[in-house]
Amino acid sequence: MTIRRAAVRLMAPESIALKTAVGLKRSRCQPACQAITRSLRHSSTTAAAQSPWANFTQAPPDPIIGLTEAYQNDDFPQKVNVGVGAYRDDSGMPFVLPVVRQVEKEITAEELDHEYSGIAGCPSFVDLAMKFAYGEDCVPLLEGRIAGVQTLSGTGGLRVFGEVLNSFGHTEIHIPNPSWGNHVPIFRNAGLDVKTYSYYNKENSSLDFEGMIADIKNIPEGKCILLHVCAHNPTGMDPQIDQWKEISSVVKEKKLLPFFDCAYQGFASGDARIDAASLRLFVEDGHKVALVQSFSKNMGLYGQRVGALSVVADSQEEAQRVLSQLKVHIRPSYSNPPRHGARIVQKILSDEQKTDAFVEQCSSMAGRINSMRATLKQTLEDLGSSRDWSHITKQIGMFAYSGLTKEEVTVLREKHHIYCTLDGRISMAGVTSKNVKYIAEAIHDVSK
């Protein structure tokens, strides 16, 4: 017999008793352990239910971003996205201006640093942006009476100025009906009550000038009114210069503060001077205007977020005080703007040859869009449509306010896989020589 077996035999009675006792204890403990486990699981579940984010509801998707996501998830081969306000070439691809490519190479070769810009951004960019909008012969600009800052494109400038208005006693702002969809949340989030004035007659797809003038006359004295410099978004329908003169007169009579949104200068007609006519008229008439500019569309710098905000003051000293307030609101918001896009614009607008190249290339983009307008209108007529589509060619800029109803737009999307916003706004940049016939046939089908 081995030592191990002997030991086992000697310990067997005690060992058996011990194992039996331990087994009984485990058996008796099992229900209690299970109860503890269940309690811990419940506590964990309760803790999860008490998450600080538990009462967060799912926000609705952005009307335009959500549209793009739906388009991307659609596997239909002939799908078309005419919802996003970004230029596409005739192949339907994003387009980078050749002059922008050239300048980017020059900037890379210079091996510039990536230090912060000041709160007001790049001074040379701001100066050139103001000359581009107001004109080099603008009297307030020559007299140093315009305060200007670089902003996060037009959106950032709108928000900053909305906050400034709110902090100096303005409680409301009046915008055209309709207007760019983001205007309302931007100004509301800045603390302003957003009111509207008549702008567009949907029944005959035209500018409602009489309604516009009547509503402006009813705006309380001293309030802020938002005006689109050119290529009104979403309608593409702008007042004529004589109509702008009357608008200027009424705004002055009511002592309103005109705030111009300029997102398409040079891109609307192809001529930057023509596109800035409304703004320059107001300044010549003596208005102390505010202006927000974006270089997303005209220079194709969508992702660079390049913009400017400026205010015409009564004197240099007043302009400096206004500038200080703009900076006070920028600092806690985004501290200072990015530099790369501003450097691109600065290099283009500070060089005569590059500026000429930009004007030509911008005009080419506008020309392609105008060509697609004419083709779309003609194709709809050739298909025998009973509707009047003349407004398509009367409108300018990136968008065509088609006149399609919400129901027709829904069918357009579900049956023909063509994606535009529910108000019938079509981004003409998404219309190409390859898909214009398909788009026209689909519009004709849903609008019979």
Automatic annotation (TrEMBL):
<comment type="similarity">
    <text>Belongs to the class-I pyridoxal-phosphate-dependent aminotransferase family.</text>
</comment>
<keyword id="KW-0663">Pyridoxal phosphate</keyword>
<keyword id="KW-0032">Aminotransferase</keyword>
<dbReference type="InterPro" id="IPR004839">
    <property type="entry name" value="Aminotransferase_I/II_large"/>
</dbReference>
<protein>
    <recommendedName>
        <fullName>Aspartate aminotransferase</fullName>
        <ecNumber>2.6.1.1</ecNumber>
    </recommendedName>
</protein>
<dbReference type="InterPro" id="IPR015422">
    <property type="entry name" value="PyrdxlP-dep_Trfase_small"/>
</dbReference>
<dbReference type="GO" id="GO:0030170">
    <property type="term" value="F:pyridoxal phosphate binding"/>
</dbReference>
<dbReference type="InterPro" id="IPR015421">
    <property type="entry name" value="PyrdxlP-dep_Trfase_major"/>
</dbReference>
<dbReference type="InterPro" id="IPR004838">
    <property type="entry name" value="NHTrfase_class1_PyrdxlP-BS"/>
</dbReference>
<feature type="domain" description="Aminotransferase class I/classII large">
    <location>
        <begin position="78"/>
        <end position="443"/>
    </location>
</feature>
<comment type="subunit">
    <text>Homodimer.</text>
</comment>
<dbReference type="InterPro" id="IPR000796">
    <property type="entry name" value="Asp_trans"/>
</dbReference>
<dbReference type="Pfam" id="PF00155">
    <property type="entry name" value="Aminotran_1_2"/>
</dbReference>
<dbReference type="GO" id="GO:0004069">
    <property type="term" value="F:L-aspartate:2-oxoglutarate aminotransferase activity"/>
</dbReference>
<keyword id="KW-0808">Transferase</keyword>
<dbReference type="GO" id="GO:0006520">
    <property type="term" value="P:amino acid metabolic process"/>
</dbReference>
<dbReference type="InterPro" id="IPR015424">
    <property type="entry name" value="PyrdxlP-dep_Trfase"/>
</dbReference>
<dbReference type="GO" id="GO:0005739">
    <property type="term" value="C:mitochondrion"/>
</dbReference>
